[in-house]
Design goal:
- The chain is mostly beta strands.
- Helix content is about 0%, strand content about 40%.
- Strands 5, 6, 8 and 9 form a 4-stranded antiparallel β-sheet that branches. A two-stranded antiparallel sheet has the order 1-10. It has a two-stranded antiparallel sheet with strand order 2-3.
- The radius of gyration is 17 Å and the shape is flat.
- The protein starts with a strand and ends in a 28-residue tail after the last strand.
Length: about 110
């Protein structure tokens, strides 16, 4: 199976899948006290490095130990698993300008 770290919503109206990005309001309360996180298989969590201000994804299975300069943004979330012989269509994976060129920021990130 193929796994994607996004939230899954079933949509009966279009007989397909609808994927939404995780909202940022799921910050872990008390993440300053908790420094060890058990990430099960097919789960992930977001970690913000406050030194570089970069958020990264930690994927399970693993035991993640948070450093002093890190904040866990989201608790372990389950990945969407696409079953064998199925597929999903990602709508609007990038932002494009009026000339249909991919828009990049000042650090050349999409």
């Amino acid at each position: 199976p193929v796994c994607f770290p996004v939230e899954y919503q079933s949509s009966k109206s279009n007989q397909g899948f609808s994927f939404d990005m995780p909202s940022q309001d799921k910050r872990i309360s008390g993440s300053m006290e908790t420094s060890v996180f058990r990430i099960p298989p097919y789960h992930y969590l977001h970690v913000l490095d406050q030194t570089t201000n970069v958020t990264r994804l930690e994927v399970g299975p693993q035991i993640f130990v948070r450093k002093d300069n890190e904040v866990v943004i989201m608790s372990p979330e389950k990945m969407v698993t696409v079953p064998p012989r199925h597929y999903c269509i990602i709508q609007n994976p990038v932002v494009r300008d009026e000339n249909q060129q991919v828009v990049k920021d000042n650090l050349e990130q999409v």
